[in-house]
Specification:
The protein has 2 domains: 148 residues, Aspartate Aminotransferase, domain 1, CATH 3.90.1150; 240 residues, 3-Layer(aba) Sandwich (Aspartate Aminotransferase, domain 2), CATH 3.40.640. 37% of the residues lie in helices and 12% in strands. The strands form 3 sheets. It has a 7-stranded mixed β-sheet with strand order 2-8-7-6-5-3-4, with helices on both faces. Helix 3 packs parallel to helix 4 and helix 5 runs parallel beside helix 6. It binds pyridoxal-5'-phosphate.
């Protein structure tokens, strides 16, 4: 059972666990901003308000901050600074990579998976309405892994048009992690471009674009305890694309718009901390999640999990729990919320309503009679929160489960 929380060494100043606090198990939707991150952002907002494009002292100071942040992000990925472009987040990064690959790099075939985030699915659907594109959705297995044999068959086809493969590193709903090394090697072998949505893994898994080459990689600060509304796109130096957002010449002419300096500085700090503490945080969260699984299985009958939580390479921050059919399930998320526990149904849904299905659960043919709740963790969670959640789940689900009859 995890006892020592890595944040107790003052990464969260003044943080004291209290059972009256709400319990936040929705870290795949977004993570809390760390105090250390806020501390580096505040002076930027207060004092270093210059526009990085201005040539006077304030502007030069802001430019220095942006370029220093670029260096931090590049180092974290084994990239060069010229390959990192700041964006407003994962959605913009995904849109830029996919749409510009078609518009500017001659891509006429896209291979992706039905379990991608909507920022990829909808970007592909949108660009396919504008260009004569061949789009292939790979078959996925019951755990949500796209079939790599099918990928290779498609890539190996002779006379195929220029191809972009867009596959996410880890799935945000069910936590399955793809074998990026193999996918990268296949794309290299057959000359396809590769985009990976690494929004859920940047800062949580070691990533190195020299060891695992990709053409594009998307990241988003708020998934690793940085601020919202800022992210980055890694673009391999061999790919020259035109601006996705037309305007001024910011981001080396790729993305018009005055830079979100405080956000960029905060993202770099959050990433620096995430990389520095990656092993400690990962070990702690893995333990916490294992404990959550054990407690669920000993408390309730017929608990199942989507994805591959028993796999050590799985996205350890995510646990997709499938509860057996019960009339109590219908409003389970709402009851948890009332009990002070934030979780989510599969993915963060745009309407805020409790969703009955998700495209990812549909793709893995999850039993629609069962109820899926995604609990997602960070190093700021505590084992006491797991216990409290079990207690609340018991109260909510009784007498529909075995726990009640005890
Ligand atoms: N891709 C994945 C896998 C995500 O989980 C998310 C956020 O939920 C996004 C993309 C979108 O990122 P952002 O919220 O920064 O636009």
């Amino acid at each position: 059972m995890p006892t020592q929380n890595p944040c107790s060494n003052a990464s969260l100043k003044g943080f004291v666990f209290s059972m009256n606090r709400r319990i936040y198990f929705d870290n795949a939707a977004t993570t809390p901003l760390l105090d250390e991150v806020l501390e580096v952002m505040l002076p930027v907002l207060r004092e270093h308000y210059g526009n990085p494009s201005s040539i006077h002292a304030e502007g030069r100071r802001a430019r220095t901050l942006v370029e220093s942040a670029r260096k931090t992000v590049a180092q974290a990925l084994g990239a060069s600074t010229a390959e990192i472009f700041f964006t407003s987040g994962g959605t913009e990064s995904n849109n830029t990579a996919i749409k510009c690959a078609v518009r500017d790099l001659g891509v006429r075939r896209i291979i992706s998976s039905p379990t991608e985030h909507h920022a990829v699915l909808h970007a592909i659907e949108a660009i396919a309405r504008e260009y004569p594109l061949e789009v292939h959705w790979l078959r996925v297995d019951a755990q949500g892994r796209p079939e790599l044999e099918q990928l290779e068959q498609l890539l190996a086809q002779g006379n195929a048009p220029r191809t972009l493969v867009s596959l996410m590193h880890a799935n945000n709903e069910i936590g399955v992690v793809l074998d990026l090394g193999t996918i990268s090697a296949l794309c290299g072998q057959y000359g396809a471009l590769l985009h990976t949505d690494a929004v859920q893994t940047v800062g949580h898994f070691p990533l190195n674009v020299q060891q695992t080459p990709v053409s594009f990689l998307s990241g988003s600060a708020h998934k690793f305890h940085g601020p919202k509304g800022v992210g980055f796109l890694y673009i391999n130096a061999h790919n020259f694309i035109r601006p996705f957002i037309d305007g001024g010449g910011q981001e080396r002419n790729l993305r018009g718009g005055t830079e979100n300096v405080a956000g960029i500085v905060g993202m770099a700090k959050a990433l620096e901390l995430a990389v520095r503490d990656l092993d400690t945080r990962a070990a702690y969260i893995r333990q916490l999640r294992r404990h959550f699984i054990e407690r669920l299985c000993e408390t309730f009958d017929d608990i199942r999990f989507n994805g591959t939580p028993e796999d050590d390479n799985d996205l350890y921050t995510v646990l997709s729990v499938s509860f057996p059919p019960s009339p109590k399930n219908e409003l389970l998320l709402l009851h948890l919320d009332i009990a002070g526990i934030s979780a989510s149904g599969g993915s963060a849904c745009t309407s805020g309503a409790e969703q009955h299905s998700s495209h990812v659960l549909d793709a893995i043919q999850a039993d629609p009679q069962r109820k899926t709740i995604r609990f997602s963790f960070s190093h700021l969670n505590h084992v006491e929160e797991v216990e409290k959640t079990m207690e609340k789940l018991r109260e909510i689900l009784m007498p529909a489960t075995r726990a009640l009859s005890r």
